[in-house]
Amino acid sequence: MIERVLHGKVAVVTGGASGIGRSTALRFGEAGASVVVADIDADGAEAVSKELTGRGAAAVAVRTDVTDQATVADAVAIAESEFGRLDIVSCNAGLAGFPTPALDADPDEFDRIFAVNVKGVWHCVRAAVPALRRAGGGAITIVGSVMGERARPGFGAYASSKAAVNHLARTLALELAGDAIRVNALAPVATDTAMLPQFLGPEDPERARAAFIAGIPLGRLAQPEDIADAAVFLSSPAARFITGVVLPVDGGRSV
Ligand SMILES: NC(=O)c1ccc[n+]([C@@H]2O[C@H](COP(=O)([O-])OP(=O)(O)OC[C@H]3O[C@@H](n4cnc5c(N)ncnc54)[C@H](O)[C@@H]3O)[C@@H](O)[C@H]2O)c1
């Protein structure tokens, strides 16, 4: 049980239907926030919203495609119309792909990864900032990746998209500090979600999993809750003087 450090706050979580986003939405609710669960998977978002309300939190689901600025704007508008304000944004929606040498990447998949992982974050921040300003400030957390800081063969498109958003977080932190809007990124290591099989690759997933774990000093993969708890911290008053940070949540992988 975590403390209600987000009591009275209103949050939007993109990609909230699954994995890290789902866990973040649930932790935000547990910490006292009202949550807009925004995902391209409308049924999945609805299920997480129901989970939240079943646990006594205020929540609403909205179908949001982060590549479409208008639907992201809808998610923000719903936060204000349903809950009166917006304080917290988790830009979490993301796509990966099977390991491929960078020069062999499929051009359409390359564009799609950047459209969701990079421009989708930009859409999300652009839509949210006017509402955060109206609330007198806020906290944006972008889900980047440890792969955005440390290269690994086979993930040219994905890792460079994550390097882009890790750095976008730093840039936005400088540009939005005057509005009392903090912007940070999380850099998770391989996390046990629906996305994980793509990182492990189709050939020998058990061997790939063991190799990932061997590179993590704390000796296991991340669980979605590990990342969600860091998102709660960065969104809470306890992190009031932290902005522009790319926080590894990686069991020591990047040390
Ligand atoms: N799983 C990992 O190993 C890992 C490691 C580091 C970073 N990440 C990042 O964490 C974030 C969450 O990933 P996850 O592991 O929970 O994966 P996941 O596949 O379980 O969840 C991703 C969610 O994003 C949603 N989504 C995809 N495209 C979307 C779009 N255009 N608009 C709105 N929603 C969309 C999906 O429907 C899904 O609910 C991603 O940004 C991912 O890159 C994951």
Tell me the number of strands. Answer: 7
Shape: globular
The percentage helix is 40-55%
Say what the CATH topology is. Rossmann fold
β-strand amount? 5-15%
Oligomer: single chain
Structure, described:
With 255 residues, the chain is α/β, with parallel strands linked by helices. 45% of the residues lie in helices and 15% in strands. The chain has helices at 19-30, 42-54, 69-83, 107-134, 156-176, 196-200, 205-214, 224-235; strands at residues 10-14, 34-39, 59-63, 88-91, 138-143, 181-188, 246-249. Strands 3-2-1-4-5-6-7 form a 7-stranded parallel sheet, with helices on both faces. Helix 1 runs parallel beside helix 2 (42-54), helix 3 runs parallel beside helix 4 and helix 4 runs parallel beside helix 5 (156-176). The mean pLDDT is 97. The site of nicotinamide-adenine-dinucleotide (NAD) has 32 residues, from helix 1, helix 4 and helix 6.
Descriptors:
seven-stranded parallel β-sheet; Rossmann fold; binds nicotinamide-adenine-dinucleotide; 7 strands; alpha/beta; 255 residues; 15% strand; 8 helices
SSE topology sketch:
Elements: E1 10-14, H1 19-30, E2 34-39, H2 42-54, E3 59-63, H3 69-83, E4 88-91, H4 107-134, E5 138-143, H5 156-176, E6 181-188, H6 196-200, H7 205-214, H8 224-235, E7 246-249
Parallel strand pairs: 1-2, 1-4, 2-3, 4-5, 5-6, 6-7
Q: How do you describe this structure in short?
A:
This protein has helices at residues 19-30, 42-54, 69-83, 107-134, 156-176, 196-200, 205-214, 224-235, and strands at 10-14, 34-39, 59-63, 88-91, 138-143, 181-188, 246-249. With 255 residues, it is an alpha/beta fold.
